Amino acid sequence: MQLLQYHRSFAATCLRLVRYASTAASRNASFAALEDTDTNFFRDVLGDSNVITDIDALQPLNEDWMGKYSGKSKLALRPKSTEQVSKVLAYCNDRHLAIVPQGGNTGLVGGSIPLFDEVILLTAGLNQVISFDAVSGTLVCQAGCILEHLDNQVGAQGFTMPLDLGAKGSCQIGGNVSTNAGGLRLLRYGSLHGSVLGIEAVLADGTVVDTLQTLRKDNTGYDLKQLFIGSEGTLGVVTAVSLLCPPRPSAVHVCYLAVPDFATTQKVFVRARQKLGEILSAFEFFDQQALDLTLKHLEGVRNPLPDTQTPFYLVVETSGSNEAHDSEKLQGFLEEVMEEGMVLDGTIAQDSTQIAGIWGIREGISVALKHAGPVYKYDLSIPVAEMYSLVEETRHRMAGLPVEVVGYGHLGDGNLHLNVSCQRYDEEILKHIEPFVYEWTAARKGSISAEHGLGQMKADCIGYTKPQPVVQLMTQVKQAFDPKGILNPYKVLPQVMAVAQ
Ligand code: FAD
Ligand code: MLT
Ligand code: ZN
């Protein structure tokens, strides 16, 4: 019986792969080409300074954070209000001009970048905090607010943003919501599907969908805001967000642990949950290769355990409200895991500088990889017990090639970041990684995107994680929200499905 089921699911996977067989995206000929009259219209609506046509100014907007994807847009627009976004979209919809929403442009799957000549819609001008309720912790703000700025603002009133990530200095809350970003504290605060209370978004035809409420509970009909969370700019442009901020923890402790093997990282995780309970706020891991790369490429990063070499390192954080109690709990946990030989060596940060130093290593890995050169990034949900085998198998497959395979991620969330650092983006190298990584993940019922999204990188690969009827339903949702398909084309859904509309 089990065998039969396995065969069925394998057959279904094969079917999906045939259906979505990767097509190099070609420009959808039904989209109009930009004309001077279009640019003049946008100048009237937005003012000259918010209509960008200068080639040098457009260049960074046409390129992604990794330097992996680039487009050829000749126009970027910077609206400053929802009304302006609505006018721009209504016009583009009438004219059949394709649009790419772009926030902080820190996305890692080529979602914020045009493939061809799509108009770039910048959300940076939507940067106002609308309100903050210091009783409930409810923040209402425009989509272009930078995550770190928001955290500083709510921090001044004793609250914290419910997410944190290495790109916090540049990424925007609208981009975070549109990618359903996970980050370093999902373990503690949950996903944005829980923290976001309301969204204001503009549909392709200019309709403003206002669900920007601040209620904790509302069961009137379908919860449409959830559709925008993680839709990567394909269903609407998010213009404002309301979200729940938890109280800022007054006692934060971070420790850095050296662990002998991957199986033991899981034992330490189980023990951390048992011993630290509600104060556990992050449980991150990285391998020796990731650490070496970070120490090599980032100035100012210091190895907290310079005399210890081991295959795996953990960053464990607690966040609570009672310094003495939390510290005692963490000490007790550490004593146990060290006495039992699970942890070979460890250190607890003594002050905020040391805390920042430890986080600097973990958050610095992606920046170090960028400094090292081109990188193929995979962002996978995999049952934790099997997670690291993928890194080892990939390393084995690529032995002898001029690449460095590193593994790190949000172990507490079952989220592996497999990265292959190489000297140039190269089809020959890619053939060793794909579809192997996707097939390996699908065989374990994992997800090919835990948190970065599908973007242009994985639009044709959604079938590895979602069954065909589900993708079909998504395509119908897309059709209902954006019948002409002008919003972020060539992203998220397979090109064949989108073109078939
Ligand atoms: P962009 O990159 O500009 O856009 C991302 C996608 O959202 C695109 O498809 C774009 O079209 C769409 N979009 C943007 N704004 C809007 C809007 N207002 N309305 C509709 N669509 C919109 N991700 C994680 O999940 N966890 C991490 O820990 C993490 N760490 C990172 C660390 C670094 C150093 C970097 C560079 C990236 C990291 N990321 C992480 C990737 C992550 O997706 C982004 O950092 C962030 O969520 C994207 O926000 P952004 O404003 O830069 O969006
Ligand atoms: C992280 O966890 O560091 C981010 O998701 C970025 C990355 O994967 O490099
Ligand atoms: Zn991550």
Automatic annotation (TrEMBL):
The lineage of its organism: Eukaryota, Viridiplantae, Chlorophyta, core chlorophytes, Trebouxiophyceae. GO terms for biological process: malate metabolic process. Its cofactor is FAD. InterPro entries: FAD-bd_oxidored_4_C, FAD-bd_PCMH, FAD-bd_PCMH-like_sf, FAD-bd_PCMH_sub1, FAD-bd_PCMH_sub2, FAD-linked_Oxase-like_C, FAD-oxidored/transferase_4, Oxid_FAD_bind_N. Belongs to the FAD-binding oxidoreductase/transferase type 4 family. One of its GO terms (cellular component) is mitochondrion. One of its GO terms (molecular function) is metal ion binding. Residues 69-248 form the FAD-binding PCMH-type domain. Keywords: FAD, Flavoprotein, Metal-binding, Mitochondrion, Oxidoreductase, Transit peptide, Zinc. Catalyzes the oxidation of D-2-hydroxyglutarate (D-2-HG) to alpha-ketoglutarate. Also catalyzes the oxidation of other D-2-hydroxyacids, such as D-malate (D-MAL) and D-lactate (D-LAC). Exhibits high activities towards D-2-HG and D-MAL but a very weak activity towards D-LAC. This is D-2-hydroxyglutarate dehydrogenase, mitochondrial. It comes from Coccomyxa viridis. It is found in: Mitochondrion. SUPFAM superfamilies: FAD-binding/transporter-associated domain-like (SSF56176), FAD-linked oxidases, C-terminal domain (SSF55103). Its EC number is 1.1.99.39. It is an enzyme of class 1 (oxidoreductase). It catalyses: (R)-2-hydroxyglutarate + A = 2-oxoglutarate + AH2; (R)-malate + A = oxaloacetate + AH2. The keyword Flavoprotein applies.
